[in-house]
């Protein structure tokens, strides 16, 4: 609340209307792999796991994917989808939680500890005996869903292909499919009194989030002033500045 001038009293509110659950797809924004001797390449951000020969020996590789899930909450189901571009031998692709911090993971500083971390820990799901050039889906279990709901936006999953060969999934195409509710996050930035009994209200919110501007003089009956507004972040209008007013932004994703 704040008093503007000598007569105009204004109170501002944000009211969020929770959207129902929906099925959404989120592409990974980063990925990569660690070798069993701790080697990490920042150049290759694809999914790569299994066993491959590089002179002078066979090496094992474990992999990871990172997702930005900050726009979703109350996840009830999750499916990992990978676009497999190569598979040199049959095997089982297992997926686990990751305890290595994301900054360390992306910086390549985890070494052998991170290699082991990506291929062990809390089990999230698996898939077996899929061909090259295929799209595979892994239904993630309750532990994975709990981890997603407990995450603070960024969520990472590790993978280890148990085989005499390797598997590659192209970066930029891999995704996670969620049944979840979108998060709404509307914040009022400013309220400004303009000349000629005009006022201006500005706010921030997510792209594609719907906004309604409403006004009341006694907090019981609300009069719509504008909306639904999508991808707009300010509103100006005329009001009677000789009396008290309450404004609210009602948002829905």
Explain how this protein is built:
The chain is mainly β and 253 residues long. It folds into two domains: 2-19 and 184-252, Immunoglobulin-like, CATH 2.60.40; 22-182, Sandwich (Jelly Rolls), CATH 2.60.120. It has three helices and 19 strands. The protein has helices at 102-107, 111-118, 142-150; strands spanning 2-4, 8-16, 22-27, 30-35, 47-54, 57-68, 72-87, 91-96, 123-128, 134-139, 154-163, 166-169, 175-182, 187-194, 198-204, 210-216, 223-230, 234-238, 245-252. The strands form three sheets. Strands 3, 4, 5, 6, 7, 8, 9, 10, 11, 12 and 13 form an eleven-stranded antiparallel beta sheet that branches. It has a five-stranded mixed beta sheet with strand order 1-2-19-16-17, with no helix packed on it. A three-stranded antiparallel beta sheet has the order 14-15-18, with no helix packed on it. The two termini are 26 Å apart. Residues 1-10 have low confidence and may be disordered.
